Amino acid sequence: MEINENLAIESILEGYKKINSDIFTLTRILLLIFISYFKDGLQFRELKNALNISDGKLISNINKLDRMGYIKKEKITLDNKKLDIYLICEKGRKELKKIKKFTRNINQIISDEM
Amino acid sequence: MSEDFKKLCSALKYWNIDLEDPRKSYQTRFILQKLAYISKALGYPLKYHFILYIKGPYSSSLTADYFNYPNFVSNQDLIQKFTKDEEIILKNVQKNIFEHGLMKEHFSEFLETLATITYIKKKYPSFLDDDLFVYTKKEKPYLKDWMITIGINVVKKILFSPDFLTEDVKREMELWDLADD
Can you tell me the ipTM of this complex? Predict the structure, then answer.
Protein backbone atom coordinates (compact mmCIF):
# COMPACT_ATOMS: atom_id res chain seq x y z
CA MET A 1 0.00 0.00 0.00
CA GLU A 2 2.81 2.39 0.98
CA ILE A 3 4.63 1.63 -2.26
CA ASN A 4 1.49 2.38 -4.24
CA GLU A 5 1.08 5.73 -2.49
CA ASN A 6 4.71 6.59 -3.14
CA LEU A 7 4.26 5.79 -6.78
CA ALA A 8 1.07 7.84 -6.93
CA ILE A 9 2.76 10.92 -5.41
CA GLU A 10 5.71 10.50 -7.75
CA SER A 11 3.30 10.27 -10.70
CA ILE A 12 1.46 13.42 -9.57
CA LEU A 13 4.73 15.35 -9.27
CA GLU A 14 5.83 14.16 -12.69
CA GLY A 15 2.36 14.29 -14.24
CA TYR A 16 1.55 17.91 -13.48
CA LYS A 17 4.50 19.09 -15.55
CA LYS A 18 3.05 17.30 -18.57
CA ILE A 19 -0.38 18.89 -18.30
CA ASN A 20 -1.13 22.16 -20.02
CA SER A 21 -2.08 24.45 -17.12
CA ASP A 22 -4.17 26.62 -19.48
CA ILE A 23 -6.72 23.82 -19.62
CA PHE A 24 -7.25 23.85 -15.88
CA THR A 25 -10.35 25.97 -15.53
CA LEU A 26 -13.67 24.34 -14.72
CA THR A 27 -15.30 25.57 -17.93
CA ARG A 28 -12.52 24.36 -20.19
CA ILE A 29 -12.29 20.96 -18.54
CA LEU A 30 -16.06 20.51 -18.82
CA LEU A 31 -16.05 21.63 -22.44
CA LEU A 32 -13.31 19.17 -23.29
CA ILE A 33 -15.06 16.30 -21.47
CA PHE A 34 -18.43 16.91 -23.09
CA ILE A 35 -17.08 17.53 -26.58
CA SER A 36 -15.03 14.37 -26.26
CA TYR A 37 -17.98 12.28 -25.05
CA PHE A 38 -20.44 13.42 -27.72
CA LYS A 39 -18.49 12.27 -30.76
CA ASP A 40 -21.26 13.51 -33.06
CA GLY A 41 -20.24 17.06 -32.22
CA LEU A 42 -21.96 19.57 -29.95
CA GLN A 43 -23.84 22.66 -31.00
CA PHE A 44 -23.14 26.01 -29.37
CA ARG A 45 -26.69 26.17 -27.95
CA GLU A 46 -26.34 22.68 -26.44
CA LEU A 47 -23.12 23.67 -24.69
CA LYS A 48 -24.58 26.94 -23.51
CA ASN A 49 -27.59 25.23 -22.00
CA ALA A 50 -25.50 22.50 -20.37
CA LEU A 51 -22.99 24.83 -18.75
CA ASN A 52 -25.43 27.66 -18.05
CA ILE A 53 -22.94 30.42 -18.83
CA SER A 54 -23.04 33.57 -20.92
CA ASP A 55 -22.40 33.56 -24.66
CA GLY A 56 -19.28 35.65 -24.13
CA LYS A 57 -17.75 33.34 -21.55
CA LEU A 58 -18.55 30.28 -23.63
CA ILE A 59 -17.18 31.65 -26.88
CA SER A 60 -13.94 32.87 -25.28
CA ASN A 61 -13.31 29.45 -23.73
CA ILE A 62 -14.20 27.66 -26.96
CA ASN A 63 -11.83 29.93 -28.89
CA LYS A 64 -9.07 29.22 -26.40
CA LEU A 65 -9.49 25.44 -26.79
CA ASP A 66 -9.65 25.89 -30.55
CA ARG A 67 -6.41 27.92 -30.58
CA MET A 68 -4.71 25.25 -28.46
CA GLY A 69 -5.71 22.69 -31.11
CA TYR A 70 -7.87 20.63 -28.74
CA ILE A 71 -11.21 21.15 -30.49
CA LYS A 72 -12.29 22.24 -33.95
CA LYS A 73 -15.30 24.06 -35.32
CA GLU A 74 -17.32 22.67 -38.21
CA LYS A 75 -20.05 24.44 -40.19
CA ILE A 76 -23.17 22.33 -40.62
CA THR A 77 -26.68 22.74 -42.00
CA LEU A 78 -29.66 21.55 -39.99
CA ASP A 79 -33.15 22.19 -41.38
CA ASN A 80 -31.59 24.71 -43.77
CA LYS A 81 -30.08 26.63 -40.83
CA LYS A 82 -26.34 27.20 -40.70
CA LEU A 83 -24.91 26.16 -37.34
CA ASP A 84 -21.51 25.55 -35.78
CA ILE A 85 -20.65 22.30 -34.09
CA TYR A 86 -17.55 21.52 -32.05
CA LEU A 87 -15.58 18.31 -32.28
CA ILE A 88 -12.64 16.94 -30.33
CA CYS A 89 -9.19 16.78 -32.01
CA GLU A 90 -6.50 14.18 -31.43
CA LYS A 91 -4.48 16.69 -29.38
CA GLY A 92 -7.49 17.32 -27.13
CA ARG A 93 -8.07 13.61 -26.66
CA LYS A 94 -4.42 13.14 -25.65
CA GLU A 95 -4.60 16.02 -23.17
CA LEU A 96 -7.74 14.55 -21.65
CA LYS A 97 -5.96 11.22 -21.20
CA LYS A 98 -3.16 12.97 -19.27
CA ILE A 99 -5.71 14.71 -17.04
CA LYS A 100 -7.52 11.42 -16.44
CA LYS A 101 -4.28 9.74 -15.38
CA PHE A 102 -3.42 12.70 -13.17
CA THR A 103 -6.77 12.67 -11.36
CA ARG A 104 -6.60 8.87 -10.98
CA ASN A 105 -3.33 9.31 -9.09
CA ILE A 106 -4.86 11.97 -6.87
CA ASN A 107 -7.75 9.65 -6.19
CA GLN A 108 -5.27 7.00 -5.06
CA ILE A 109 -3.69 9.08 -2.33
CA ILE A 110 -6.67 11.10 -1.13
CA SER A 111 -8.88 8.71 0.78
CA ASP A 112 -12.62 9.16 1.20
CA GLU A 113 -12.24 9.61 4.98
CA MET A 114 -10.40 12.92 4.53
CA MET B 1 -21.94 -4.94 -36.16
CA SER B 2 -24.69 -5.02 -33.59
CA GLU B 3 -28.07 -6.56 -34.33
CA ASP B 4 -29.54 -3.27 -33.13
CA PHE B 5 -27.91 -1.35 -35.92
CA LYS B 6 -29.14 -3.83 -38.53
CA LYS B 7 -32.61 -3.46 -37.08
CA LEU B 8 -32.42 0.32 -37.19
CA CYS B 9 -31.13 0.41 -40.77
CA SER B 10 -33.90 -1.97 -41.80
CA ALA B 11 -36.42 0.44 -40.34
CA LEU B 12 -34.88 3.28 -42.39
CA LYS B 13 -35.35 1.16 -45.47
CA TYR B 14 -38.95 0.45 -44.50
CA TRP B 15 -39.61 4.18 -44.14
CA ASN B 16 -37.80 4.79 -47.40
CA ILE B 17 -35.46 7.35 -45.87
CA ASP B 18 -32.36 8.23 -47.78
CA LEU B 19 -29.57 9.51 -45.54
CA GLU B 20 -26.07 10.69 -46.32
CA ASP B 21 -22.90 9.10 -44.95
CA PRO B 22 -23.06 9.52 -41.15
CA ARG B 23 -19.31 10.20 -40.98
CA LYS B 24 -19.78 13.27 -43.16
CA SER B 25 -23.25 14.45 -42.22
CA TYR B 26 -24.16 15.78 -38.79
CA GLN B 27 -27.80 15.82 -39.86
CA THR B 28 -27.71 12.07 -40.58
CA ARG B 29 -26.26 11.37 -37.14
CA PHE B 30 -28.80 13.62 -35.51
CA ILE B 31 -31.73 11.97 -37.30
CA LEU B 32 -30.46 8.46 -36.55
CA GLN B 33 -30.24 9.21 -32.83
CA LYS B 34 -33.73 10.66 -32.62
CA LEU B 35 -35.41 8.02 -34.78
CA ALA B 36 -33.70 5.19 -32.91
CA TYR B 37 -34.90 6.56 -29.60
CA ILE B 38 -38.50 7.16 -30.71
CA SER B 39 -38.72 3.69 -32.27
CA LYS B 40 -37.31 2.07 -29.15
CA ALA B 41 -39.72 3.99 -26.94
CA LEU B 42 -42.60 2.68 -29.04
CA GLY B 43 -41.43 -0.89 -28.52
CA TYR B 44 -39.22 -1.50 -31.56
CA PRO B 45 -36.61 -4.02 -30.36
CA LEU B 46 -33.46 -1.92 -29.97
CA LYS B 47 -31.23 -2.36 -26.91
CA TYR B 48 -29.35 0.94 -27.19
CA HIS B 49 -29.14 2.86 -23.93
CA PHE B 50 -30.03 6.56 -24.20
CA ILE B 51 -29.33 9.54 -21.97
CA LEU B 52 -31.22 12.83 -21.96
CA TYR B 53 -28.63 15.35 -20.81
CA ILE B 54 -27.04 17.91 -23.16
CA LYS B 55 -27.79 16.22 -26.46
CA GLY B 56 -30.42 13.71 -25.62
CA PRO B 57 -31.90 11.38 -26.21
CA TYR B 58 -28.45 10.21 -27.21
CA SER B 59 -26.77 6.80 -27.31
CA SER B 60 -22.99 6.49 -27.43
CA SER B 61 -23.19 2.85 -28.55
CA LEU B 62 -25.34 3.88 -31.51
CA THR B 63 -22.73 6.55 -32.31
CA ALA B 64 -20.04 3.85 -32.32
CA ASP B 65 -22.15 1.72 -34.69
CA TYR B 66 -22.70 4.37 -37.33
CA PHE B 67 -19.10 5.51 -37.27
CA ASN B 68 -17.90 1.91 -37.57
CA TYR B 69 -20.46 0.75 -40.14
CA PRO B 70 -21.47 3.88 -42.07
CA ASN B 71 -22.31 2.01 -45.27
CA PHE B 72 -25.17 0.20 -43.62
CA VAL B 73 -27.20 3.39 -43.34
CA SER B 74 -27.82 3.43 -47.08
CA ASN B 75 -27.58 -0.30 -47.71
CA GLN B 76 -30.30 -1.10 -50.19
CA ASP B 77 -29.65 -4.85 -50.06
CA LEU B 78 -30.60 -5.09 -46.42
CA ILE B 79 -33.39 -7.62 -46.09
CA GLN B 80 -35.17 -7.84 -42.80
CA LYS B 81 -38.46 -9.42 -41.98
CA PHE B 82 -40.56 -7.61 -39.45
CA THR B 83 -42.91 -9.17 -36.98
CA LYS B 84 -46.50 -8.00 -36.91
CA ASP B 85 -45.84 -5.87 -33.81
CA GLU B 86 -42.75 -4.30 -35.35
CA GLU B 87 -44.68 -3.41 -38.45
CA ILE B 88 -47.39 -1.73 -36.37
CA ILE B 89 -44.69 0.43 -34.71
CA LEU B 90 -43.05 1.32 -38.03
CA LYS B 91 -46.43 2.25 -39.49
CA ASN B 92 -47.20 4.36 -36.42
CA VAL B 93 -43.98 6.35 -36.99
CA GLN B 94 -44.68 6.61 -40.70
CA LYS B 95 -48.22 7.89 -40.25
CA ASN B 96 -47.82 10.21 -37.27
CA ILE B 97 -44.29 11.52 -37.83
CA PHE B 98 -43.14 11.21 -41.43
CA GLU B 99 -46.47 12.28 -42.86
CA HIS B 100 -46.69 15.26 -40.52
CA GLY B 101 -46.50 18.67 -42.18
CA LEU B 102 -43.60 19.79 -39.99
CA MET B 103 -41.35 17.11 -41.43
CA LYS B 104 -40.90 19.08 -44.64
CA GLU B 105 -39.08 22.12 -43.33
CA HIS B 106 -38.38 21.31 -39.70
CA PHE B 107 -37.31 17.70 -39.99
CA SER B 108 -34.53 17.75 -37.39
CA GLU B 109 -36.11 20.12 -34.91
CA PHE B 110 -39.40 18.22 -35.03
CA LEU B 111 -37.65 14.90 -34.39
CA GLU B 112 -35.61 16.41 -31.57
CA THR B 113 -38.77 17.79 -29.97
CA LEU B 114 -40.62 14.48 -30.26
CA ALA B 115 -37.70 12.44 -28.94
CA THR B 116 -37.21 14.76 -25.97
CA ILE B 117 -40.90 14.82 -25.03
CA THR B 118 -41.16 11.04 -25.44
CA TYR B 119 -38.18 10.56 -23.13
CA ILE B 120 -39.68 12.82 -20.48
CA LYS B 121 -43.12 11.23 -20.79
CA LYS B 122 -41.60 7.75 -20.42
CA LYS B 123 -39.61 8.83 -17.39
CA TYR B 124 -42.50 10.65 -15.73
CA PRO B 125 -45.68 8.95 -16.96
CA SER B 126 -47.89 11.00 -14.65
CA PHE B 127 -46.77 14.31 -16.23
CA LEU B 128 -49.59 16.33 -17.75
CA ASP B 129 -49.19 18.61 -20.77
CA ASP B 130 -48.09 21.63 -18.71
CA ASP B 131 -45.44 19.61 -16.87
CA LEU B 132 -44.19 18.20 -20.16
CA PHE B 133 -43.97 21.68 -21.63
CA VAL B 134 -42.03 23.11 -18.66
CA TYR B 135 -39.60 20.18 -18.45
CA THR B 136 -38.97 20.14 -22.19
CA LYS B 137 -38.33 23.89 -22.17
CA LYS B 138 -35.89 23.45 -19.28
CA GLU B 139 -33.95 20.73 -21.10
CA LYS B 140 -34.07 22.39 -24.52
CA PRO B 141 -34.75 26.13 -24.11
CA TYR B 142 -33.95 26.73 -27.78
CA LEU B 143 -36.95 24.70 -29.00
CA LYS B 144 -39.80 26.94 -30.07
CA ASP B 145 -42.93 27.04 -27.89
CA TRP B 146 -45.27 26.16 -30.75
CA MET B 147 -43.03 23.25 -31.71
CA ILE B 148 -43.22 21.85 -28.17
CA THR B 149 -47.01 22.26 -28.08
CA ILE B 150 -47.44 20.39 -31.36
CA GLY B 151 -44.85 17.86 -30.22
CA ILE B 152 -46.79 17.05 -27.06
CA ASN B 153 -49.89 16.25 -29.12
CA VAL B 154 -47.97 14.06 -31.56
CA VAL B 155 -46.25 12.19 -28.72
CA LYS B 156 -49.61 11.51 -27.09
CA LYS B 157 -50.79 10.10 -30.40
CA ILE B 158 -47.78 7.85 -31.01
CA LEU B 159 -47.69 6.56 -27.44
CA PHE B 160 -51.40 5.85 -27.39
CA SER B 161 -52.04 2.16 -26.99
CA PRO B 162 -55.32 0.57 -28.15
CA ASP B 163 -55.57 -0.93 -24.64
CA PHE B 164 -56.30 2.57 -23.33
CA LEU B 165 -59.43 2.76 -25.45
CA THR B 166 -61.89 1.42 -22.91
CA GLU B 167 -65.64 1.48 -23.42
CA ASP B 168 -65.89 4.55 -21.14
CA VAL B 169 -63.32 6.46 -23.17
CA LYS B 170 -65.01 5.46 -26.42
CA ARG B 171 -68.37 6.73 -25.13
CA GLU B 172 -66.82 10.03 -24.06
CA MET B 173 -65.11 10.46 -27.41
CA GLU B 174 -68.36 9.84 -29.22
CA LEU B 175 -70.05 12.52 -27.11
CA TRP B 176 -67.31 14.98 -28.01
CA ASP B 177 -67.71 14.10 -31.67
CA LEU B 178 -71.42 14.84 -31.46
CA ALA B 179 -70.95 18.14 -29.64
CA ASP B 180 -71.48 21.35 -31.61
CA ASP B 181 -68.59 23.76 -32.11
Answer: 0.81
